[in-house]
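To close the chapter, one final illustration. This time we ask the reader to focus less on the individual chains and more on the assembly as a whole: which components sit near each other, and how the overall shape emerges from the parts.
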Amino acid sequence: MIYNDQLYTSFIKQKIDALEKMTDQDNPYTRIVFSEKFYEARSWLKNEYQKLGLKVSTDEAGNLIGLLNSKTDTDKVVIIGSHIDTVPSGGRFDGIAGVVAALCVAKYINKNDINLPFNLAVYDYLGEELNDWGTSCIGSRGIAGVLNKEILSRKNKSGLVLKEEIDKIGGNSELLNKPLAVTKNILACLELHIEQGKVLEERKIDIGIVRSIPGISRFSINVKGQAGHSGTNLMNQRSDALVTASEIISFVNKLALKLSEKSNQHFVATIGKLNVYPNSAAIIPGLVEMTLDLRATSQIAREEFLNILEKEILLLNKKSSCKTDIKNIAFAPFVEMDKSLIYLFKNTADSLGLSNNIMESGAGHDTAQLSRVAPAGMIFIPCKNGFSHCPEEYAEASDISKGTAVLYKMVTNLADQSSNKT
Amino acid sequence: MIYNDQLYTSFIKQKIDALEKMTDQDNPYTRIVFSEKFYEARSWLKNEYQKLGLKVSTDEAGNLIGLLNSKTDTDKVVIIGSHIDTVPSGGRFDGIAGVVAALCVAKYINKNDINLPFNLAVYDYLGEELNDWGTSCIGSRGIAGVLNKEILSRKNKSGLVLKEEIDKIGGNSELLNKPLAVTKNILACLELHIEQGKVLEERKIDIGIVRSIPGISRFSINVKGQAGHSGTNLMNQRSDALVTASEIISFVNKLALKLSEKSNQHFVATIGKLNVYPNSAAIIPGLVEMTLDLRATSQIAREEFLNILEKEILLLNKKSSCKTDIKNIAFAPFVEMDKSLIYLFKNTADSLGLSNNIMESGAGHDTAQLSRVAPAGMIFIPCKNGFSHCPEEYAEASDISKGTAVLYKMVTNLADQSSNKT
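The assembled structure is written out below.
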């Protein structure tokens, strides 16, 4: 090992321990974007930036930036970062590992007095996780100029408007109608993330280098039946929305299983969110609202799935007295990472003596959004049992530290490349 | 028609209109037991009792009583009443029609200066609808002495203890370990209720006279899977609690449908309440909690259903990686109404020229609990389309008025019977 394992590891451990305390106490680990705990973590991060001598700012999309200015006068920038928000009852590493790694890189670039020919920016991308407004990756979509008016004007269940929340945290939602100015000057966006799968752990590989990020589509599926008394409505007189919803859930699961085996590519479909109305033991469900999350590397498999599902829903609407409708609410396209960055990541990991593997991502990431407007690259580090989006999520600080070393070396390698070019 | 239709109808309309305003505004019609709106409605009812010259009290079980004392010195009592609480997003008539009818009877017994040889008590039974503590019929179970310590000590999701809520509203939960003293003196408990089914409406019958109330069992069914990221967990690696729950819901529905056709008796099974955890679009469901509500007039059909369901759950636990358990949380036995009261109801309705029919109840009622400790009888009046436990629930004031006339005449007939005996 030729990187400073111990110093990195203890820094990373300390920062992750600090962030894990900023959670809804009843529901660890929960730090939803714009929540009180999220604001608390942002204050903490601002302070961390300042302690490292980084210049703090918030961009139009509400991303929190810590900037290490180059001693050379330049507008060029390399961005490293990830996100500090979590899903409800999520983990301590998803996103967080990447922000902490970026802090660590900035710290040692500064401490080791490395003169970079570009500015180095640590980013906490605003609200990467899927939120109440039915979108994800608020900050990185904002950078890429793809947060349209319809999304920005959405209200969540508490009646809060997304754009107003972005403005409150220091953004400027009026200016999000095109890619932000910074995109003209980005040399590279780099992100470290836990794998959220088992491949690296099972094959004992230090670093996964991401080749592609799958397309993610989300659909709202609503089943409307007729609420009524559970005692007086005979079995053959009912329009029970939950019974019809159950048929759809089983169907989605079986179909996704079949397609994932057939296509031999990454294909997953999940109904993770479901609400029953009025949700009382003595009332037949009158309405079920659910969200379908669909991720595919193959556009053909995605379309096949949706065609079959839509046909099934038509059929159900004919044979059942409930009425089901399906509506697309979010879409992120399949993207490939920058090929020269993949190549450089590989060389960097090799040069550090770290085992590595080029692989597909299963999850969506801010880097997928950034890749629309700048060269973008991403690495994974192993996590335990592939657990993620749950409290059991775990990654060893020493594993994050290896990834951090790759990130650090990438920045200096990019500096060398950049200097050679000029 | 030989009863005072118009006076009754306008009184009933006025009181139902007043009560329908006391609802959670966002979620009509919702007046959950112990909620702010419930307290508001109780204050209103106290005032109504006082306006009619009834003596107001709250018994140990938290029932709100308006007493019309006999001019004769007696401990004997005839109870008329129902409940003013609702399910979430329920209706304006379930329970309410019975309380308003009882008010109307007390008003005209008083106004017409009828001298009863017993006290007449109007009851608002506390919390008839299924609540957060997994029980129903709090007040009538309390009278019957069947609210055991385990039930009284239960906490709801907000951490409130049932017995503390009963005490707060004026009850005395320490004294609920046996039937209340009043049960020694009850000559009859009479309840008017909307049918919550379509039989009376379709057959154009004025009055349903209840022969029996079905046994109601409630079970909590929990499915434990493994929460995880919806993008990175392959379809064949998942323990999705919602997929397994869906299989159970479909199974329960199909089995209940089959048994209801086979037994040719009242048999219904409903999963009306279901919560997914953590309930986020990007997380595979790790836990599903649901409640099964089972109502049967046949004990054999009930046991057959439970045996088959338990076998299916064992099978699911073997073949799926999720773990399901089922637990009985509430039980009310099948009961028959007092035969002489059924007979008297029939004669009374006939004498008023009202068409009537002896029938089974589909729903559970306070009167089922009271029948354990006193002669109890019940009548139904028609409601629109059989809708109940939903905002569409509707009954004509003129139909409630016909039932009220039967109730009024029952009280005077009981008085005649009682006088003839002495």
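The longest strand of chain A covers residues 267-277. Chain A touches chain B through 73 residues (CB under 8 Å). With these observations in hand, you are ready for the problems at the end of the chapter.
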